[in-house]
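Worked example (supplementary).
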Amino acid sequence: MTLLLTIFAAVVTTAIWYSSEKARELRVGMLVFMFWGASLMWLVDAVVEFIEIRAEYFTPAAEDMLNDAFLGVSVIALALVIWIVALLIKDPKRVIASKLKKK
Amino acid sequence: MACFLVPTAEAIVTTVISKVVSAKEKKQDLAHVDVEKIEKKPLGFGKKLKWLNAMLWGGSALLAFEHVWHGEVTPFFPFLTAASNPADAADMLHEMATSGVAMAGLVTLVWVGMVIVSGLMERRAEQAAADTQEVQS
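After joint prediction of all chains, the assembly is encoded as:
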């Protein structure tokens, strides 16, 4: 579930990055790389788990699935927080810099 | 357990390499400034290395969070719960050598694919630009 949610996040952010000039200015590319990197790493985890438990991998317990989904959403939230902090620090549109100058 | 440490270690190495390569490319660019070619210049290797850095750092950060979530990473010594006894430590090292190396390898492999494809796209764009110029002249 965590892998699935991260892949969905990676695909959505990639589509946003590709279609919007504004998104590229706002460094959405960082999110794209973050989500794809994590997706690839969790894909390896999934393959290793599949090799160990075979078909059982596709029939997880409801509680495990819920916990994994909660983790997936939390991972997306963490990535968004990292991105917004990096965006504010880099300040590509000089918004914060101009505000500070005015003061 | 601690598989994310392998991609993290690779990220440290590639970050250092990309800093060195970017500095060299910047120096070369300053030495051979060609105003006409600035816009058409293909992406340098240093810029492409940054893609790998971003995937490795980003992926490792999110995986580290997952390990914290599962209680495998703690804020106190020895930081990894598996490192507290020899049997778990052996399992951890085995996982790092298998899953960790596979993770780093897969991300690097995908990056190599990205570099090859972007190189081909750049070459095609250059060819198209050259063809257009030829037609115009």
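Two points are worth noting when inspecting this output. Chain A has a mean pLDDT of 94. Chain A is about 85% helix and 0% strand.
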